[in-house]
Specification:
467 residues, alpha+beta, TIM Barrel, Elongation Factor Tu (Ef-tu), domain 3, Immunoglobulin-like, 3 domains, 7-stranded mixed sheet, 7-stranded antiparallel sheet, 24 strands, 25% helix
Length: 467
Amino acid sequence: MEFASRRNLISKPEKPSGKTFKIGDHKRMDATSSERDQQFRRRLWQLRFLGSGRVRPERHRRTKYGTKEELVLSINALHEHKIEVYADMVFNHKGGADFKETFKAVRVNPQNRTEEVGEAHDIEGWTVFSFPGRGGKYSNFEWRFFYFNGVDYDEKSGIFRIIGENKNWSADTDSELGNFDYLMGANIDSAHPDVVTELQKVSDFMIDQLHYDGFRYDALKHVSREFIENLSKAISDKHPGFYFVGEYWKDDLGTIDYYLEQTDYLINLFDVALHYNFHEASKNSEFDMRKIYEGSLVSEKPQKAVTFVDNHDSQPGQSLESWVESWFKVIAYSLILLRKDGYPCVFWGDSAGINENKYTGIAPQLEAMLMARQVYAWGEQDDYFANQKLIGWIRHGDADHPNKLVVLISTGDAGELTFFVGKEYVNKTYKDLSGKNQPITIDGDGNGIFTVAPGSVTYWVAGEEAD
């Protein structure tokens, strides 16, 4: 699974470790909502009630990951633990068709999809999704070539734009490679009215029958903005409070701001720019930590930002590999989990490990920070960004959580920094919840000198509150 919460969110690697878990473990780790992982989402579609994949329903009712009934039971169990569940929705493409068919298309330049290469001609493409074993149980919609606008196969590899009346790439996708509507497989034509109707039905099914609490929109830079806006509005009208988060993989705040504006701020977005800041800081020992949030979505529109350190796309071996180095991982997580702004996402691979990458994860450190977030990371925040390699902040708590949390980070040598915690803490001790330092005593002015080891993070609370 990819786990999430309105206080933090947890996501799963492309190939997980195989480590098992109990739902209560994630409640203890302060995960109060959850997102089904990419692999499970694909198997879900293979169950055929979403209309894709290669599992033959005339021979199987279950997928590798279970049955629809087991999925509903798992979602209900998560709800019993007050964990919300988000479905990973792919509206860009379909794969694993039942049959090929012949239709007219034109090859395009893969580096500029607006540039045609040669003349339109008949090709054979995998575009028939007829679901022969489904018997119309969930939908009688049959996908054919005229419901797509591009494919990548005609005995030879390439990208082909399908020819037809009012058929072209969606004009309101990202402009990368000329037009980035096409990603892979059979590219869904989200301008076709029949397609719009069917995908609305799919969304209603996910909400009404499976009881999802939100959607994670996959690959938004490849999907029509107008389609996403209209679908989100329709769902919100029926289900007020339904949650939307989108993956728009672009390290450019201007593009992200424009997307949010054009979709009427209905959708939260993953903070890709912040991820790349983490990646750069982990690679560059001279990175100025005072600029760690520079150019990020959370720095400009914190209510729309889902912050993360790594995910299944950035992990080693993936097409968007931009892995945050191990020494910086815990520091990066403190910068999303213990801060006031953003909706933080925890990568399941950082908790359970990733076998193929021989990565064991940082589960103990994550659990400690998640506990600190749940209990102490509340209220207003004052930053103490002292220099290029030494930064910190204090969280002042609120009426229900009156504790004050002090966080200190060094990306260079061992360091120390004075924080004013308040006169009410005079002569009280502060304990390091990360377990790296001995307790300190607050002086007569309400100040404390807090310490941190090289390339590390410490986070502190008053002694009696930490017990």
